[in-house]
């Protein structure tokens, strides 16, 4: 199933309740918590997430881009928070933290920055409900999708299938109607989109377009990732992503 989680990083923070209303047709809302230490940007913390939980019916998907999630992440496992994602690069003990999140009644998810290999999680996959493969460097919206992250998505999907576990695979960064299908064909099923949704006059229309783009990819099935490396499957990804795909050849 294709799930679309708009990121409110691209919403108007002063009119957040209004902007949450614009994405009511989504499958969840992606909430980026940044501490200006783990990433070079600052957003907000727990009080804001608690307030968001009061004004939206959507499942809340918290993406913690913070240092020391082992200490802070469990506090985010409040009512209405469906999943808490912490970064593999920031945690001291991913398995203990995931167990604690699950014990508190939320889904546990782990995120990988572009430079982090799947080896960081693959041995402990059953401990997580979701893995987030970052398709940009975390910190800012509006960056170009990195197609060279897709082999990580494919490796995780293959491993989850081998183990027979249900694992959600999320991609975050540069997701548009052009890049979503290629990520879906690699095995991703939860798609975060900030600028692609809120940069449009009708976020609801854009959510529907993204969902359709994902369904099409599932119909087509898996793609040949080696074609991306040759640059031939990068067509339609947009100029920046095409450049990124091409750069793999250099
Ligand atoms: C970036 C955040 C993303 C961001 C994505 O570090 O984690 O959730 O909102 O923005 P777009 O969709 O514009 O790339
Ligand atoms: Zn995010």
Automatic annotation (TrEMBL):
By sequence similarity, the record places it as follows:
Belongs to the ribulose-phosphate 3-epimerase family.
As one GO molecular function, the record gives:
D-ribulose-phosphate 3-epimerase activity
Give the EC number(s) listed in the UniProt record: 5.1.3.1
Pfam families linked? Ribul_P_3_epim (PF00834)
Please verify whether the record's keywords include Iron. Answer: no
The protein here is known as Ribulose-phosphate 3-epimerase
- What biological-process terms (Gene Ontology) are attached? pentose catabolic process; pentose-phosphate shunt
């Amino acid at each position: 199933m294709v799930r679309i989680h708009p990121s409110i990083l691209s919403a108007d923070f002063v009119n957040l309740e209004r902007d949450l209303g614009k994405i009511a047709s989504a499958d969840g809302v992606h909430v980026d918590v940044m501490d200006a230490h783990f990433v070079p940007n600052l957003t907000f913390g727990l009080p804001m997430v608690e307030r968001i939980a009061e004004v939206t019916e959507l499942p809340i998907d918290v993406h913690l881009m913070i240092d020391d999630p082992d200490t802070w992440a469990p506090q985010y496992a409040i009512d209405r928070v469906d999943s808490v994602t912490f970064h593999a690069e920031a945690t001291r003990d991913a398995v203990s933290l995931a167990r604690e999140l699950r014990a508190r009644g939320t889904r546990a998810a782990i995120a990988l920055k572009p430079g982090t290999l799947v080896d960081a999680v693959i041995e402990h996959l059953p401990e997580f409900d979701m893995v987030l493969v970052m398709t940009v460097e975390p910190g800012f919206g509006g960056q170009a999708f990195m197609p060279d992250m897709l082999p990580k998505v494919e490796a995780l999907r293959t491993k989850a299938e081998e183990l027979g576990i249900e694992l959600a695979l999320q991609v975050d960064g540069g997701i548009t109607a052009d890049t979503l299908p290629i990520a879906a064909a690699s095995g991703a099923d939860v798609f975060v989109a900030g600028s692609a949704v809120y940069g449009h006059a009708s976020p609801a229309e854009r959510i529907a377009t993204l969902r359709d783009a994902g369904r099409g990819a599932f119909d087509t099935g898996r793609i040949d990732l080696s074609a991306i490396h040759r640059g031939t499957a990068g067509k339609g990804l947009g100029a920046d992503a095409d450049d990124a795909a091409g750069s793999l050849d250099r």
